[in-house]
Structures are given as structure tokens and as C-alpha cells.
Amino acid sequence: MKLTDLLCKLDYECIQGSMDLEVGQVVYDSRKITEGCLFICIAGANFDGHDFAAEVVEKGARVLVVSKEVPEVAGRDVTVLKVPDTRYAMAFISAAYFGYPAEKMRIIGVTGTKGKTTTTYMVKSILENAGYKVGLVGTIEVIIGRERIHAGNTTPESYELQEYFARMVEAGMDAVVMEVSSQGLMLHRTQGFVFDLGIFTNLETDHIGPNEHASFEEYLHCKSLLFRQCRVGIVNGDDSHVDAVLKGHTCQVERYGIGENNDLRAENVRLVRKPGELGVAFRVEGLMDFDVEVPTPGRFSVYNALTAIAICRHFNVREDDIKRALLAVRVKGRIEMVKVSEHFTLLIDYAHNAMALESLLTSLREYAPNRLVCLFGCGGNRSRQRRYEMGEVSGRLADLTIITSDNPRFEEPQDIINDIKTGITRTEGAYVEIIDRKEAIRYAIGHGQEGDIIILAGKGHEDYQEIKGVKYPMDERTLIREILAEQTQN
Q: What's the predicted TM-score (pTM) here?
């Protein structure tokens, strides 16, 4: 591919070398250099590609894209192009390299603190029910037709994202629904194309700290960037931060929510409880008008469903298709119901901080359970404050807390449990501690009572347990099947 074609949408300065070149490949990992490639010098948390400039030229790179001086390659047979930000440049170069695949599909981007994963799966379910072929990019996985690829980041690096888009075009996808993280926006991973629809679910204080965001203001600003990069913005009109997120927007805006000033509204919200199952039902009013039921509990399930409906309206999906798809959708590790008994309800959820756990337990309390039982642990080599807070939340809101192990990493599980207990003892909540997670789940199921709601929190979609640097297979669904089989044998 001609070098000038890769750069046609960028401002750059040629520091040295010729522009009349053919580029064989675009690379940003110094370990993947090929002869005649273009190498983009990316500064990461631990490595800076600029430090490898001489090495990659020695290996065969013929073009370097840099944002600072690389004197060690002066006079060498290499073209050096300077740009203000190499991550931003990589997004546009990657889009050009893969032939601008996003322009050949409709792209939906969902941002927000909570609800991104569930919403994307709901949208995929509804659109596929209506006959569309839909790709998905998110926290759990990337889905291209029947292929499922484990996700490393919620929003992949721009090069990988464009490569996924290209593969989706080749597979005949009509649309792509993707989670857009604040980190992804901050690091320009979603530049190089325009979203057809940009969605804002909600905003709460999260992702503030080392290697994330310096402040809530920065976090909010990064979320707002999506609405300068989409044609239509669909936003939760009930969220207190919605106007700040929309500040400086360049898109058409629609609002959804429960409040009466929204364009699409949920009214007459009611809880649904069936043997071993929980859900919500409501009437959609405003831009659409019909009744809907969702087989997951809580007010947040109303918002997730309403978000998906607001999106799918732009695809002219029939009401019956929406209703049928919402009843069928299941998202791994997100308020995921696992049927183990007619007498009590068991759910798996990814809630792994105090804010998410409080929202989850408060929502489940609305179903007036006989007991609300919360099983969770906390990750090792992470904030001890999170452990105190989660312990206090569970002690306050659950009737029984079962403290167990999560991903202890390089810490001792008992030390983590002791920190959780510090939080619980600030309340009057009852608790038991069982380090082995399978045994803890066995205890929860074996002691389930009529009308209980039992939540297994923290692991969600994860299918491993990380101990001393090793990830061992551990999927809670598998553990539950094994426990039930062992009970049958006994």
C-alpha cells in the first residue's frame, strides 16, 4: 500500500527519508517487525516504542511514525514521520490500512459506567432476531459470526479494532455493537471512523486511580468524547451527569429513561417473580408504544432494555421482534440466573466493587426475599479499601454473607478475607467464611431456603482463578453442575 494513502487523513511532518514508498504492513509491537513495514512508536505504561527505533530499523522497518525525536536513526535508510500523537495517528493509519471497514457497516458504540455489556448483548439479540448479521466487541469477547475471541481490553487497540471490523465486513456483518470504555476514548482507540449511534448509559465515580483516570472530571470528559464522534447520540436522560457528558456534542440527541421529559420512556414498571426466576416488566411509551418483559431483575434491567430498544428503533425493528428477543437474551455473568431449585433463586454477577454490589443487592431486596445471601471474595494485589467497603455493603444489605476467595493473585486468601471481615464487623450482618470457592458455593446451595435469593458476586463471566501468577480453570457454572451431580450421587 502506498505510504501517502495510509496518511491521507493525518497531519504530519516528514523529518527524513522518502514519501514515495510501498508499505507492506503496519506494526506497533517491536516484536512483530517485518521487512518494509511501517512502525508506529507508541508510549505505553511500561514500554515506549521510541526506545526501540534503532532496533526496529535494524530488523527491516522502513517507516517510523513518531511523536518525539529519535536521533539514533538519523541518516539511516528509514522514513521518519512526526505527528502530534502516535496513538491518534495509529487509529487513522489502521483504518486506511484495512480499507475503512467501519464505513461498510453501521457502528453502535455504548459507553457508561454500568450496563455496557448487557446492553450490547441485548442489541445483538434483538437485531439478529430481526434478521441482521451483527458483530460484537466487548469486555467478555469479540464475536464475528460463529467465532468467539477472548477479549483483552473492553475496547481493543485501534489496529486490532480495525482488523476486527475488516473481518466482520468479510463475514457479511450488517452492523457492529461495541462497548466503548473511557480508556479507549482517552487513548484514541475509536478514532479513524464515525459511530452511527453513540450511547450513554450512566456515570458514577469509578476507574479513578493509577493507570486509569486522574480525576472524575477527566473520566467524565473522556466519556463525552463519544458524542463528538457519532451521528446520533442516545443518552440516559435521567442520569445527573447527562448534560455534562453532552457538553460540546456535535450529534443529534435522543433521551430515554423513566422521567417524563424523555423521548422514549418506561412506564408502569413492575417486578416479576416466578419459581427460581426474577424479572421486570414495563410499558414503552413516547417514540414507541408497547409492553415488554425482561427476565433479569432490578431497575437497571429496565434501563438496559430501554437503551437497547432506543437503539434498535433506528433499525426499524418490529415490536414483536424486540419483545421476543428481550425474553430470550442471556448475558454471561451479568445477573445470570442459574436454575438449581424451584424453591430459591441463584444468580451469578460480576459486581466486584462496593458501588456495583450495593446497586445489585438493593435491587434484589425489592423482591422481598426470605433471605438475601451474598457470596463474594476480593482480588489480591488490589485496594484493601475496596475489601472493607464491599464487606460493609454486604453486611448491611445481605441477611447472610459467605466470604470466600476470588483471585488472590500473590496474596494469601485468608488475609483478604480478614480485610473483608473488617468491613462486615462495622455492621450487624451475619457471615460465614469458606476459603475454597467451590465449597462456599456448595454451602450456599445446600443451605438454600424457600424464597431465598442467592447471589454469587465478583467472578461473573470469568472462567479462571488467578493464584501466584497462574490462571487455573474455574467457571462457577461448572462448579454448580459438579455440586448438583455430586448431590444426586449421594
A: 0.91
